[in-house]
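Sequence in, structure out. Go.
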Amino acid sequence: MATTRTTTKPPVPAPAPVEPAPCQPCGGSGNVAITVRVGRKRRPVGQQDGLCLNCLGEGTDPGTDA
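Output:
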């Protein structure tokens, strides 16, 4: 005959969620500065926000796939 257990197992804590690393070129914002050029000589006149091509706007580092 099998012996009966008088104590219960302690609950196993859930693993902590891993935060993804921020993207290096955009710093986690998903936007990078793009230089605006005008004229025939293509002189720079300012900057505007552009989509980060490394993370495609997500802001997380694509090299750290979980």
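Check: The CA atoms of residues 3 and 62 lie 53 Å apart. The first strand starts at residue 31 and ends at 38.
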